[in-house]
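Ticket #4471: structure output looks truncated?

Reporter: J.K.
Steps to reproduce: submitted the chain below (96 residues) through the standard prediction queue, then opened the result file.
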Amino acid sequence: MILTTCGVAGIGHLGEALTKQLESKNVNVFAYHPDSNRRSEFAGRFDKVEPVDFTELLKHKVVLLALPSEVIRSFLKEAQKEIASNDITPNFVNLS
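Returned output as attached by the reporter:
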């Protein structure tokens, strides 16, 4: 399977390094951060990155979690609620 698009939650050092690698492989990245201004600013620094809200992030088949370890549990708890209400099935990859 060739990855052509994915979601990335987390735009800190790990998220940025990951996004650079993905973009260099022509992967379209859909970046999420709870602060819409920060995610838009982040996406503006790349050619193949689009800022998305939480619901849109979870619509992607693969979601890479570049989040601080202390945030993972709450993120997944919220994701579980969203997944149940929208019948979507993302695959999470925890990179923290």
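Triage note (M.O.): checked the attachment and the full token line is present. Residues 69-86 form the longest helix (18 residues).
Status: closed, working as intended.
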